[in-house]
C-alpha cells in the first residue's frame, strides 16, 4: 500500500514540474579499493567497476530531482597471521545503491557545474564465498546511506551532452545510543 501511494504521489509530482524535462543518464565508472588494518592482519576491498543510471526531473530554478541506481562489484580479501597467513579471497561482493536526491546547477545553458546531495538504501550481497576460509554463511544486509556528488555537464546539442562527476557515498551503521551526564 505504501509503495503504491509513493508511486502515485511521484507521478502527480512529475506532472506538476514546471519545465517537464526528464533526463536519463546511464554511466560506468571505477571505484578505488580500501584496506582496514588490525593487529595481526588486514581486510581489503579490492578496486572494481561501478555502473548504473539516473533519471532526473528538472524542476526549473536550476534544481534537478534524481532517482539513482549504482552497482559496485568487488572482492573482499583477508590476510591474518592465524587464519590466512597469505592474502586470500573471502568472497565476491555486490553493492546495490538506490537513492533519491537533488542537484543544484549553475552556469550557462550549454556548460554548467553541479552539486548534489542524496539519501538512499545500500544492499550488500556476498557471492562466491570461499569455504576454505569462511566456514559459515555471510548474509546480505541493508543500510541507509547519504551521498555527495559534484561535477559538470557540457551539452553538445539540445538533447545530447557529456557529464563528468564524482560521487562519494557514506553508509550509516547503527552503533547504539547512550546518554551521558
What features would you describe in this structure?
β4 and β5 form a beta hairpin. It contains 1 helix and 9 strands. It has 181 residues and is mainly β. Strands 1, 2, 3, 4, 5, 6, 7, 8 and 9 form a 9-stranded antiparallel sheet that branches. The longest helix is centred in the first third of the chain and has 14 residues, at 2-15. It is 8% helix and 65% strand.
List key phrases describing it.
elongated; 181 residues; 9 strands; nine-stranded antiparallel beta sheet; mainly beta
Q: Per DSSP, what share of the residues sits in E-state strands of 2 or more residues?
A: over 45%
State the distance separating the first and last CA atoms.
Answer: 43 Å
Secondary-structure element string: HEEEEEEEEE
Structural class: mainly beta
Radius of gyration: 20 Å
Q: What is the number of E strands?
A: 9
Mean pLDDT score, rounded?
82
Uncertain parts = none
The total count of helices amounts to 1
Write the layout of secondary structure elements.
Layout lengths: L1 H14 L5 E11 L2 E5 L2 E5 L2 E11 L4 E18 L3 E24 L3 E17 L13 E15 L5 E12 L9
Amino acid at each position: 500500500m505504501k509503495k503504491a501511494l509513493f508511486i502515485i504521489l511521484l507521478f502527480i509530482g512529475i506532472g506538476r514540474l514546471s519545465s517537464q524535462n526528464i533526463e536519463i543518464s546511464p554511466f560506468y565508472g571505477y571505484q578505488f579499493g580500501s584496506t582496514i588494518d588490525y593487529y595481526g592482519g588486514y581486510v581489503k576491498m579490492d578496486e572494481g567497476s561501478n555502473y548504473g543510471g539516473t533519471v532526473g526531473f528538472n524542476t526549473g530554478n536550476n534544481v534537478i530531482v534524481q532517482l539513482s541506481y549504482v552497482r559496485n562489484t568487488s572482492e573482499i580479501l583477508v590476510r591474518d597471521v592465524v587464519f590466512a597467513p597469505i592474502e586470500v579471497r573471502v568472497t565476491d561482493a555486490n553493492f546495490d545503491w538506490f537513492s533519491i536526491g537533488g542537484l543544484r546547477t549553475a552556469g550557462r545553458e550549454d556548460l554548467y557545474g553541479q552539486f548534489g546531495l542524496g539519501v538512499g538504501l545500500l544492499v550488500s550481497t556476498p557471492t562466491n564465498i570461499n569455504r576454505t576460509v569462511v566456514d559459515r554463511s555471510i548474509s546480505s544486509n541493508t543500510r541507509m546511506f547519504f551521498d555527495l556528488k559534484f561535477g559538470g555537464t557540457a551539452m553538445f546539442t539540445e538533447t545530447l551532452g557529456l557529464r563528468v562527476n564524482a560521487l562519494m557515498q557514506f553508509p550509516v551503521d547503527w552503533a547504539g545510543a547512550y546518554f551521558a551526564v
